[in-house]
Each structure stands twice: as structure tokens, then as C-alpha cells.
Specification:
heterotrimer; A mainly alpha (about 270); B alpha/beta (about 280); C alpha/beta (about 290); A: about 270 residues; mainly alpha; 11 helices; 2 strands; B: about 280 residues; alpha/beta; Rossmann fold; four-stranded antiparallel beta sheet
Chain lengths: ~270, ~280, ~290
């Protein structure tokens, strides 16, 4: 069902992670993502996995939600694993038809999947514990220095905010339109690719029309509430980098140092 | 000087085929500060177009629209005008901008450049005024239609708006939601003395106003107290509008020769008149 | 043969933390040629119930039968059974997508793979029924029409499927009083003249009271009241439990009664209410003199 999507969903709460400054979280996410690629040793991965598990626990969001966020990528993970399992040369431990499964493939497949999983988990940690508004707010602040070179930081952030706000609304709307057209005998599940694409027209046209109408009405509503771009705008929630953020940065730095040491030592 | 002054206001919608549709035709209207005015009329009678003039979303083709003494065509005062007149629209989904209730209420004052601790105070006040304080951290899509409209009202209150213009705020709501919105507006009018312009199709809501304005084909055709307007049952029906049930029943009874006062609008009044 | 729901339960997002039971053991039989109204709060389960009637949702438990055929059952038969039920969603004009009115109305019949002349016949008939002149409207873009007209086009699009059963979810929402009256008249005609079995969901108790032969009130996924209007609106306790208000006519007349005017309260239009009051006054004056 369409409403099953959890990626990008925010779970309100008061955990340490929720209280962190979104800018700090964004920067640390970037650092951790880089770490995943740099410290690609068993020791590094153990440390990162441990960190991810600890953060999941700290976030107070049910662990099952993180599993759900992995679900859409299940196939990609399985596929990646199988490709590497069978296509990596090395010591064959199992043979099936034309596929040779190697020990090297097993470990490579495993680590690649773990890498993807960690990337998703860390991103989910950010989106689950950061309200979309403070997330975009954080991005806007981080991008602000780039305004000088023409990056429309405020506009991008506002676009993100609105997009995030309307995701649930549009999902609901799509669901209704699909059902309504089904009730008029539309069939979305049979026929070849071309036919199926054509079958999307009765869904896409109403969805586009309604999105344009929504956009128009929303623009009017925003103007009516004195919206005039980013100039002279203040924020209710000013961002503060506080103790939690320094602590988080400290912990991350320590972990990075440890992983660096492990990589140097070849663990 | 009245708070809202509309003089000889006409508005023509431009159309791509070159034909011009006159949505407002020399409208005159003045609304005093603290009044509660309901605007009635069938779809296409010009109600929404008039509403959009009151905070300079649309500008007159000819004539004048003044809000708190400011001409809406005066670009330098645009933001003052919009801060003075808050709008609530029909579709609750298409006017909530933020993904969290309190952030949405803060949107207006943020645009006005209000300092952040002052915004916080205003948001808390506004949410309390519409009875939505406990929903401050909610995502809007989890709220009912009536709750969303109350959030929209709170959004204008946080701008310290003096006048609330509601354009069919209950058209997409169920009876419970309709009750919530009307009660909220009524309370704001009574307790904070806010000026209200309330466009609706529901006669029971119009009956709650102090004054009813009826529009037809871009003109104001009736303007009076709910009692005056709704006692003209014949005229209202001819315009394709309803009257409150009590008014209609009283009218039918009078036609059958039952002696009843001319100005019955509410159930209460009919009960008093019949059971005395 | 009627529509039958036998012990239908439905749970949204089963097996997730968001699991929510929307229908609890609902049994209901809707007779051929009847006009039934369904009411209840947002979240009472009425929309979920209605979506079971043409197989958009299948029960988690229980079964839905149309003319004896289980909608969740074997392919061909179930598909044919579902087609007997036309469904008009809330704000149906939002599902229009074709370039012309006629093409949009033809979408349903075309999906049924009917011959062209039959499609045209149905489009004509459907447009005539919703009072849109075929010649002057068939080539018009639906998006240029007024709200009321767009809604009529959308309803015609469902009528062109020539269903035996028609389900309407709040057909009058957002219309002005005049357009509302007109649409309700059309729906009554569908029932009286075309002998369609009609099920409509509404929040408007007055509309329900004056149109329906039978009223089903939902609350918390269950059927709370299932009775003709003359009984349903007088089950005060249950009405209160469902959080529903009596139609304005009933409320007004009941109030008069409480204040000593002996008037019968089961009037569902202003006309009837006035008659009842006039009668009661005459009686009162008769005894007084």
C-alpha cells in the first residue's frame, strides 16, 4: 500500500538525537557517510555498526521502523549480495549450475550490503529524529555561505519544506484517484509496458491538475500571510549549537580516530 | 472612518479568449471595526473575489478598496494591509505550509520579521485562543478538517490580525468541524473584538453574524441584520439561497394564516412565539 | 438479488504499528431497489464500508456478496459482479482527465470494451440524465465548466457504466444550495425512474431524512442504528453515542413538543414541519375554546 512508506518520516520525540542542532546532525551524517567509505575494514564496520545500533537505541524510535526503512531496498541488497557472491573470483565453496560462489564473494557481498544498510540507517536516524522543517532550516543555514555564488538557499529550503508537507496529502489523493478510476473499469495491472504507461494517464492528469490547483492556492495563502521570500524573515526556532552537539562531535571524532588507528593497524 | 471601505469597486477577470467577465460590479460596502458580517451568494456571485480584495490579493480594476485607511493599491503598505487582514480559505489542506502545527502558526510572524521569543509567545497565545495547544507538535495530515481550519485561524492571529476574512471555511468539513470553526470564530469576535467577514453557504452560520450581505452577479443585493434578510424567505429562495429552517417554517405558517412575528430566524424564537 | 455483507471486518495496515481496525463484524443486506443512507463521523468506518461494495477493499474477515457472488472470489465472476456497482467518490470532479466531456464519460464504457455505437448511446443517455445537453457540451473541456457541472460530468461517467447499484460518497459536498437541490433531485429520479438501488453517504441529516428509505448509522466500525428514518432519528441514546444530531426539522419539532405544543416530530421537510405545527395549533385552539 502507498501509505506504507516510512522513508523521510519524522517521529517526534525528546531524545538526545532529537535535541541536537540539525546543522550538527547534517554535518555529522556527512562525516559518517564518508567514514563508511574510508574505513572499510572489519574493525571500522564493527565500530560503525555498533554506533548505528547505539544511536537507534538512543533515538527512542522503535527499531522496527528502521527495518521498514530498509524494506524498499531489500531487492537491491539481495541483488548486490548475489552478484558479488557469484562474480568475485576466488576460492569456490559452492557451485550451482553456472554460478560459482566464492568465499571472497561472500565477504565482499556482505560488506557491500552492510555499507548500504549503514548508509540508509544513518540517513534514517537523521530524518526520523529531525522535523522536516528544522532539517530544511539546517540545510538553508549550511548553504547560506553559498548564496554569494548564486545558490538560492532559502528558496531551495522552502521548496523542500512544502514538498515534505504535501507528501502525505498527495499519497492519499493518489490512492483515491486510483480507486475512482478502478471503479470506472480501469485496469492497471495487465498488458504490456506501453499499455501500462497509457493506463497511467487517468491517474497522472487528475494528479497534475490538482497539484497545480494546490500550488496556486498555497501561493495565495502564503502571500496572504505576508510571505515575501527570505529577506527580513526571522525564525521562531533559532538554531543553537549546544552541549549535546559538541558532545556528539566529540564522540564522532573519537570513533573516527579509533577507526583510523584500526585501519592503520590493519584490523 | 470604517475599518474596511469599498467604493464603486469593480473587478474584471482577464480571460485568454479576450472576453471579460465582470466578477464585481460597482460594489459599495463599509465594515466597522469589530463587526461580524456574513456574506452569502451562490457560487460565482463574486463573494470570493470580494474577499480577495480585502487583503490585496486582488486589486480593483476600478474603484477603491481601503483597509484601516490604507488603499490596497498602495504597494508600500501591502504588508501592513495583509498583516491587518488575515485570510482563511476553503481547502484546509492548501493553506498549511509547514509539516508541524506550531511551525505553521509561526509562518506569518516569521515573515513579518518578529523576534523569535516574541513569535514563540504569539504562537502559544494563538494556539490557546483556538483551543489547539495540545496539538502543537502534530503533523497537519493527522488533524481533522475542523482542526486544520482552527490552525489556519491561529496562523492569522499570530500575525496580530485585526480582521479575519474566512472564505467558505466550512464547505469541506463535516458537521462537527463546522461547529468547531463557527464556535472559534464567534468566540474570537466576542472576546477579542476581532472584525469578522465570513463567507458561507450555511444559513445557520450566517445567522450567527450581526449583519448579512447577499451578493448576486457581482453586486451586493441585500444588506441587513440576519432577521431582516432571512425574513424575506421568498426573495432568498428566488436567489437560489436557503434560509434557516425556523424562518422558513414560520413563513409557511404565516401563509397558512398562523399569526407570527415577521422576524423569526432561530428555533428559539419560533418556540417562544408558538408556545407562549 | 441484493448486496450482502456477512460478518465483515477490515483492518488497515495489518501487522504494523499503525494497525487500525476500521470495520468490526458488520453484517448488512441491501435490498434491490432500495435507497439507503449511511452516516457517521469521520473515522466511523463508513468510507471503508462503502469501498467494500465494489471490491476496492476486500474484507480481512467475512465476505461481500453481490447477487450471491463473492467479490473476493474467482476472477471472471467477481469482476462481473463488481461492475454491477457504480461508485461515485467524494469530489468526483477531481478524477476527470479527458480533453472533452464526452471522452471522459466514455472512459468507463470503453474499459468495458463495448462497441462504439453502444458507447455513444450510453454517453448520450448519461449526459441527458444529468441534464447536460449532448450537442453543446460533448466537445467542451470539462475543466472549463463550473463546479456543479463538473460534478455532473463525473457522475455521468459512472452512470455510463449502467450499474445496477450506485454508491455515492457525499455527492453534494461543496455545492451551493441550488446545485445541491438539483443533484439530490437527480439522485431521487435515478432511484424512482431508473429503479437503481442507491446507497449514499452523507453528513446532512435533513437530506438523509427526506430521501432515504433506510438509514444506517456507523460508529467505531460498527452499525449502531439500522432503521427507517421515522425510527432512526428518534433513537436518542444511540444518536448521542454516534455523536450525530437529529435533522433540524426533528430538532425543532421536538423542542416545540418539550415546550408544550403537542406536535408530531417525524417531519423531514420544512413543508411537512409547517403542516404538523399548523395541525397541532388547530387542535390546541380547538380544545382551548
Amino acid at each position: 500500500m502507498l501509505t506504507d512508506i516510512t522513508i523521510g518520516q519524522f517521529f517526534p520525540g525528546t531524545s538526545v538525537l532529537h535535541r541536537m542542532d540539525p546543522r550538527a546532525k547534517l554535518l555529522l551524517l556527512i562525516v559518517l557517510m564518508a567514514a563508511i567509505f574510508i574505513f572499510d575494514t572489519p574493525g571500522g564496520y564493527t565500530a560503525l555498526t555498533g554506533l548505528a545500533l547505539a544511536l537507534i537505541f538512543l533515538s527512542g524510535v522503535p527499531a522496527s521502523m528502521y527495518f521498514r526503512s530498509l524494506r524498499p531496498l531489500w531487492w537491491i541488497l539481495a541483488f548486490t549480495f548475489l552478484i558479488h557472491l557469484c562474480a568475485t573470483p576466488g576460492e569456490v565453496f559452492f557451485r550451482f549450475w553456472i554460478f560459482d560462489m566464492t568465499k571472497e564473494g561472500l565477504s565482499r557481498g556482505f560488506f557491500l550490503c552492510l555499507r548500504l544498510t549503514l548508509l540508509i540507517l544513518f540517513s534514517s536516524l537523521l530524518t526520523f529524529t529531525t522535523s522536516p522543517l528544522s532539517l530544511t532550516d539546517g540545510m538553508e543555514r549550511l548553504l547560506r555561505p553559498l548564496k554569494a555564488v548564486g545558490v538560492p538557499a532559502h528558496e531551495l529550503a522552502m521548496m523542500m519544506t512544502i514538498a515534505l508537507r504535501f507528501v502525505p496529502t498527495l499519497i492519499e489523493e493518489t490512492d483515491t484517484i486510483v480507486k475512482a478510476q478502478q471503479s470506472r473499469g480501469a485496469d492497471f495491472s495487465t498488458g504490456n509496458v506501453l499499455k501500462r504507461v497509457r493506463h497511467l494517464v487517468p491517474i497522472l492528469v487528475p494528479l497534475f491538475i490538482s497539484s497545480f490547483r494546490r500550488a496556486d492556492e498555497l501561493a495565495t495563502a502564503m502571500e496572504a500571510r505576508c510571505y515575501r521570500g527570505g529577506e527580513g524573515r526571522t525564525r521562531m526556532k533559532e538554531l543553537h549549537v549546544g552541549g549535546v552537539d559538541y558532545a556528539a562531535a566529540g564522540v564522532t571524532a573519537l570513533l573516527l580516530a579509533a577507526m583510523g588507528a584500526m585501519k592503520a593497524a590493519g584490523v | 472612518m470604517a475599518f474596511i471601505e469599498v467604493e464603486e469597486l469593480s473587478f474584471v477577470y482577464p480571460s485568454e479568449r479576450g472576453e471579460r467577465r465582470m466578477a464585481l460590479d460597482q460594489v459599495n460596502l463599509s465594515i466597522e471595526e469589530g463587526e461580524f458580517v456574513a456574506v452569502l451568494g451562490t457560487n460565482g456571485s463574486g463573494k470570493s473575489t470580494l474577499a480577495k480584495h480585502l487583503n490585496a490579493i486582488l486589486l480593483p480594476t476600478s474603484g477603491v478598496c481601503r483597509v484601516a485607511g490604507m488603499d490596497t493599491r498602495d504597494a508600500a503598505r501591502l504588508w501592513d494591509i495583509r498583516q491587518n487582514v488575515g485570510m482563511v480559505f476553503q481547502n484546509p489542506d492548501n493553506q498549511i505550509i509547514a509539516a508541524i502545527v506550531e511551525d505553521d502558526v509561526a509562518f506569518g510572524p516569521e515573515n513579518l520579521g518578529v523576534p523569535s521569543d516574541e513569535i514563540r509567545r504569539r504562537v502559544d497565545e494563538a494556539l490557546a485562543a483556538v483551543g489547539m495547544s495540545s496539538f502543537r507538535g502534530f503533523a497537519p495530515h493527522l488533524l481533522s478538517g475542523g482542526q486544520k481550519q482552527r490552525i489556519a485561524i491561529a496562523g492569522t492571529l499570530a500575525m496580530h490580525t485585526k480582521c479575519l476574512v474566512l472564505d467558505e471555511p466550512t464547505a469541506m468539513l463535516d458537521p462537527v468541524g463546522r461547529g468547531e470553526v463557527l464556535d472559534t470564530v464567534r468566540q474570537l469576535h466576542q472576546e477579542s473584538g476581532i472584525t469578522v467577514v465570513y463567507i458561507t453557504h450555511f444559513m445557520e452560520e450566517a445567522a450567527a453574524a450581526q449583519r448579512v450581505v447577499v451578493m448576486e452577479e457581482g453586486k451586493i443585493v441585500e444588506d441587513g441584520s440576519p432577521k431582516e434578510i432571512f425574513s424575506r424567505v421568498d426573495a432568498m429562495k428566488k436567489r437560489g439561497l436557503d434560509v434557516p429552517l425556523a424562518a422558513e417554517v414560520a413563513w409557511k405558517l404565516r401563509k397558512q394564516g398562523v399569526r407570527l412575528p415577521e422576524d423569526i430566524v432561530t428555533d428559539e424564537e419560533l418556540v417562544v412565539a408558538l408556545c407562549r | 438479488m441484493p448486496i450482502e455483507l456477512k460478518g465483515v471486518s477490515y483492518t488497515y495496515m495489518k501487522g504494523t504499528p499503525f494497525e487500525r481496525m476500521a470495520l468490526r463484524d458488520v453484517s448488512l443486506t441491501i435490498a434491490d431497489g432500495s435507497l439507503t443512507a449511511i452516516a457517521g463521523h469521520t473515522g466511523s468506518g463508513k468510507s471503508t464500508l462503502v469501498q467494500h461494495l465494489n471490491g476496492l477493499l476486500h474484507p480481512t474477515q467475512g465476505e461481500v456478496l453481490i447477487d450471491g457472488v463473492n467479490l473476493a472470489g474467482k476472477k471472471k465472476e467477481a469482476v462481473l459482479a463488481r461492475r454491477k456497482v457504480g461508485m461515485v467518490f467524494q469530489y468526483p470532479e477531481q478524477q476527470l482527465f479527458e480533453e472533452t466531456v464526452a471522452a471522459d464519460i466514455a472512459f468507463g464504457p470503453r474499459n468495458l470494451e463495448l462497441p462504439e455505437d453502444e458507447i455513444e448511446r450510453r454517453v448520450r443517455a448519461a449526459m441527458e440524465f444529468v441534464q447536460l445537453d449532448y450537442e453543446s457540451y460533448r466537445d467542451v473541456t470539462p475543466f472549463k465548466l463550473s463546479g456543479g457541472q463538473m460534478r455532473r460530468v463525473a457522475i455521468a461517467g459512472v452512470l455510463a457504466l449502467e450499474p445496477q447499484y450506485l454508491v455515492l460518497d457525499e455527492p453534494t459536498a461543496g455545492l451551493d444550495p441550488q446545485a445541491r437541490e438539483e443533484l439530490l433531485r437527480r439522485i431521487t429520479d435515478l432511484h424512482r425512474k431508473k429503479k437503481l438501488t442507491i446507497i449514499f453517504v452523507s453528513h446532512n441529516m435533513q437530506d438523509i431524512a427526506r430521501m432515504a428509505e433506510r438509514v444506517v448509522f456507523m460508529h467505531d466500525g460498527r452499525i449502531l442504528i439500522d432503521a427507517p428514518p421515522s425510527e432512526a432519528f428518534f433513537a436518542d441514546e444511540k444518536m448521542k453515542e454516534a455523536g450525530l444530531a437529529a435533522p433540524p426539522t426533528v430538532a425543532l419539532l421536538s423542542r416545540l413538543r418539550q415546550n408544550g405544543l403537542l406536535v408530531e416530530a417525524d417531519a423531514f421537510t420544512a413543508e411537512e414541519a409547517a403542516k404538523r405545527i399548523a395541525k397541532a395549533i388547530r387542535k390546541k385552539e380547538g380544545t382551548a375554546c
